[in-house]
TrEMBL record:
Name of one Pfam family that matches: PHD
UniProt KW Transcription regulation keyword: yes
Annotated source species: Gossypium mustelinum (Cotton)
SMART domains recorded: PHD
PHD-type domain mapped to chain residues: 597-647
InterPro entries found in the cross-reference section: MS1-like_ubiquitin, WHD_PTC1, Zinc_finger_PHD-type_CS, Znf_FYVE_PHD, Znf_MS1-like, Znf_PHD, Znf_PHD-finger, Znf_RING/FYVE/PHD
Keywords, sorted A to Z: Metal-binding, Transcription, Transcription regulation, Zinc, Zinc-finger
Protein name in the entry: PHD-type domain-containing protein
Length: 655
């Protein structure tokens, strides 16, 4: 098997000596660069190690590629593309430049940034569409318009975008469940997490639409763990749709997690005996009592992570699989213990079958018995351990290792069989486990029966809808107090200040009450003056924001100083300062992506990405779902909100 993105073999893209980086470490400090500056400095340092692409996304757009080795045997590579998108190249209309993702997650008050940085892992199909080596040369100075715009193509394995102020969005993650045959979802997330951490990103949002076998993972993992699947990497509630806030979301999680299994089993067993069988099956596998629905889903998902991919796990010793062997149960048990002890001595690392066999021969002379037990032990439980067996893809040799499963099967020392008559309590395969999870998900969480619409169970459909309506998650990677300044200040003694700005026009118009831009970390030498500080603030904010490209600092809020005064001694290290200034350039001054007013029945006051409809009289926007227009129906040509409709009825009744 070879890499599907081995671009070195393309005649028109042959690159001599391009460096290949390790996928598993790329983004860590030192791989490939020391990330010791601000976000913008770290991006600039990173792209210096990339291969500069020509006309990949059109004229005037810079892009770089990095060859990443996923594993060597069999060889598999992917390519990371970084595309720098400048706001001037995006559109001639400033209205279209506002980031809808910022608007949806609650960052709509942020000013437009001068640049975006797209980080892309393209899929096979994207590469085939973009890198047509047979028909088009990438050195062509006049490529067909839009043909190579990698950013606009769909179906990437991963697509993330950062604004130049360090705020970003993870737009898509398509692992094996979504068709990728190279990388699993967790591998992609680990890669993205390293990039965000290394680059010193500030906050990153995502729209959680992850699914597995038709199940919404934000609901499944919310019930099992109290947080979505992306919570493994620190992503938390960012913003709910339809007016949902964090306390409402948390109460919905707790309500559905705390449903008593005994009551649920009693109500559902009347019409659906299969659910009772599933409850009993996993209670038998667990050595502790599962009381709530959250306990059950948590145990099932934990068990899934421990089960081998193909084989089944018995809750007792698998040595009874072949009870008609020529060795007595005592000899089989003795050989099993010796092999397990040999694997323990290997300190949970993978060892070859021959190495395990040689270690066991010091105590068991019968090689036929050892071969039989080694064959029987593959992917089975012995005591508190799961004996894993797999074929090394490089050496083609069988290897074994131990995995501690005491957290999944606690107090399982009694699982070792002392005689051939013992029978396993239960046997479960990964396929069966996933079927059971999907069955419970469908009949309890999604398709509730009338028996679940009363009493304590009436909370299930409402809580489910609240959890599913909570899609936007946010992770804060760099707090303001730990932000790093410009790396150019690394020579000599320096100190950092957190600075932001406000336009003189915004200060005068108090009714606007616009939020301040996020603070930027400014690094100064210890002998810097306030004139130098103002110049550094102007440079930073002009570089970041489109609106402030001609910004000139005039004064500092609540600080009366002269230009030649030393900064150190007048302010404390890490202090927050607000600078007031003037801005001659008024193009793109609006800070919102849309001009309409949102005032929905659910309480939403801003666009949250859900389908909206505007009243033809008052022009106020509301969710179509909240005004009872199904998503599968088209928006009517004429629509009146309830208030305007009532006013018309009232006026028509007047004499």
């Amino acid at each position: 098997m070879s890499s599907y993105l081995d671009l070195g073999g393309c005649r028109k893209r042959r690159r001599g000596g391009e460096k290949v980086f390790k996928f598993k470490t790329f983004g860590e400090n030192g791989c490939p660069v020391e990330f010791d500056g601000s976000f913008r400095d770290n991006v600039k340092a990173l792209v210096e190690y990339g291969h500069l692409e020509v006309n990949l996304c059109g004229n005037g757009v810079f892009s770089w590629s990095f060859q990443l080795e996923v594993h060597r045997h069999p060889p598999l590579h992917v390519v990371l593309f970084i595309v720098e998108e400048q706001i001037q190249a995006s559109s001639s209309s400033s209205i279209n430049l506002h980031c809808k993702h910022c608007q949806y997650v609650g960052w709509g008050h942020h000013m437009m940034c001068n640049k975006k940085y797209h980080f892309l892992l393209p899929s096979k199909e994207t590469v085939a569409a973009c890198f047509n080596c047979d028909e088009t040369s990438f050195d062509d100075p006049n490529p067909e318009k839009g043909k190579f715009n990698l950013v606009e193509l769909k179906g990437h394995i991963m697509h993330g975008v950062f604004h130049s102020n360090g705020f970003g969005h993870l737009l898509c993650v398509n692992g094996m469940e979504m068709g990728s045959d190279q990388l699993a979802g967790y591998q992609i997330m680990e890669f993205w997490h390293r990039l965000c951490t290394g680059l010193q990103a500030r906050k990153v949002s995502l729209n959680d639409s992850s699914k597995k076998r038709g199940m919404e993972l934000r609901l499944l993992y919310g019930v099992a763990y109290g947080h979505p699947w992306f919570g493994r990497w620190g992503y938390k509630f960012g913003r709910g749709c339809y007016g949902i806030n964090q306390p409402i979301y948390q109460k919905a999680i707790e309500a559905i997690q705390g449903i008593p299994l005994c009551l649920l089993n009693h109500h559902l067993s009347i019409s659906n005996n299969d659910i009772s069988v599933i409850f009993s099956r996993y209670q038998a596998l667990s050595d502790h009592s599962m009381v709530t629905l959250g306990d059950l889903f948590h145990f099932m998902l934990e068990l899934r992570s421990r089960l081998p991919k193909e084989n089944s796990i018995d809750s007792c010793n698998p040595a009874t699989v072949e009870t008609n062997c020529r060795w007595s149960p005592k000899r089989v048990e003795a050989a099993t213990r010796v092999i397990v002890e040999a694997l323990k001595n290997a300190e949970f690392r993978w060892v070859s079958r021959q190495e395990v066999r040689d270690a066991a021969r010091a105590y068991i002379g019968d090689t036929g018995l050892l071969d039989f037990v080694l064959k029987s032990l593959g992917n089975h439980i012995v005591g508190n351990y799961l004996v894993r067996r797999c074929l090394n893809p490089v050496t083609k040799v069988l290897e074994y290792c131990l995995e501690d499963i005491s957290t999944v099967f606690p107090n399982s020392e009694a699982l070792i069989i002392n005689n051939s008559k013992a029978k396993p309590r239960c046997k479960i395969t990964k396929v069966q486990l996933m079927k059971d999870i999907a069955y419970l998900y469908k009949h309890i969480l999604k398709d509730q029966k009338p028996t679940l619409s009363t009493g304590v169970f009436s909370a299930i459909p409402m809580a489910t809808r609240i959890i599913l309506d909570t899609k936007f998650l946010v992770k804060e990677y760099t707090e303001e107090l730990s932000m790093k300044g410009n790396s150019n200040c690394s020579n000599g003694k320096t100190f950092n200040l957190l600075c932001t700005v406000i336009s003189r026009s915004d200060e005068i118009d108090e009714e606007l009450k616009k939020p301040l831009p996020p603070y930027e970390c400014v690094c100064l030498k210890e002998n810097a003056t306030f004139d130098e500080l103002k110049q550094e603030v102007e440079k930073n904010f002009r570089e970041v924001y489109w609106r402030l490209r001609s910004f000139v600092v005039e004064t500092i809020v609540n600080l009366s100083v002269k230009g030649l005064d030393l900064v150190m001694g007048s302010v404390e290290m890490g202090q927050k300062l607000v600078f007031i200034g003037s801005n001659e350039d008024q193009i793109g001054m609006d800070d919102g992506g849309g001009s309409g007013i949102v005032d929905c029945l659910c309480g939403a006051k801003e666009d949250d990405g859900e389908r909206l409809i505007s009243c033809d009289i008052c022009e106020v926007w509301q969710h179509t779902r909240c005004v009872r227009i199904p998503n599968n129906e088209e928006i009517p040509h004429v629509f009146l909100c309830k208030q305007c409709e009532e006013k018309i009825v009232f006026l028509s009744s007047l004499p």
